[in-house]
Amino acid sequence: MPLFLKENIERERLPHIHPRKQDNAHKLIHSLYQTPVVTANQISKKLDIRHNTATALINDFIKMNVLKEITGNKRNRLYFFEPYVKIFME
């Protein structure tokens, strides 16, 4: 994993998340390096949080340009860790 991406996300983007969400945000970002394409249900199970909490975290990550929704559906949405995936596409 390129260090510049990890440092940018952990030092520049994650601090903007509400302090109460910080622990889950760090767990999610570390999980995304292993599984860069996820659903809200997967995040909920992996982090042992409620579905609405996972969705709120996803929305925070979308606002920070960390996750991007790729299905266009209202249900069963897939999200991918765009900055990380782009590294492998270049």
Could you say what the CATH topology is called? Arc Repressor Mutant, subunit A
Structural class: mainly alpha
Approximate helicity band: 55-70%
Query: Kindly state the mean pLDDT as a whole number?
Result: 87
| Count of beta strands | 3
Biggest sheet character: 3 strands, antiparallel
- Rounded to an integer in angstroms, the radius of gyration calculated over CA atoms is 12 Å
What would CATH call the homologous superfamily? Winged helix-like DNA-binding domain superfamily/Winged helix DNA-binding domain
Number of discrete helical segments: 5
Order of helices and strands: HHEHHEEH
Strand content: 5-15%
CATH architectural name: Orthogonal Bundle
- Can you list the strand order of the major beta sheet? 1-3-2
Question: Any idea what the shape is?
Answer: globular
> What is the name of the CATH class?
Mainly Alpha
List low-confidence stretches.
none
End-to-end span in angstroms? 14 Å
As for the number of domains, it is 1
Explain this structure:
There is one protein chain. The chain has 90 residues and is mainly α. The protein has one domain (3-89): Orthogonal Bundle (Arc Repressor Mutant, subunit A). Helix content is 59%, strand content 9%. The protein has 5 helices and 3 strands, in the order H-H-E-H-H-E-E-H. Strands 1-3-2 form a 3-stranded antiparallel beta sheet. The longest helix is centred in the first third of the chain and has 13 residues, at 22-34. The radius of gyration is 12 Å and the shape is globular. The two termini are 14 Å apart.
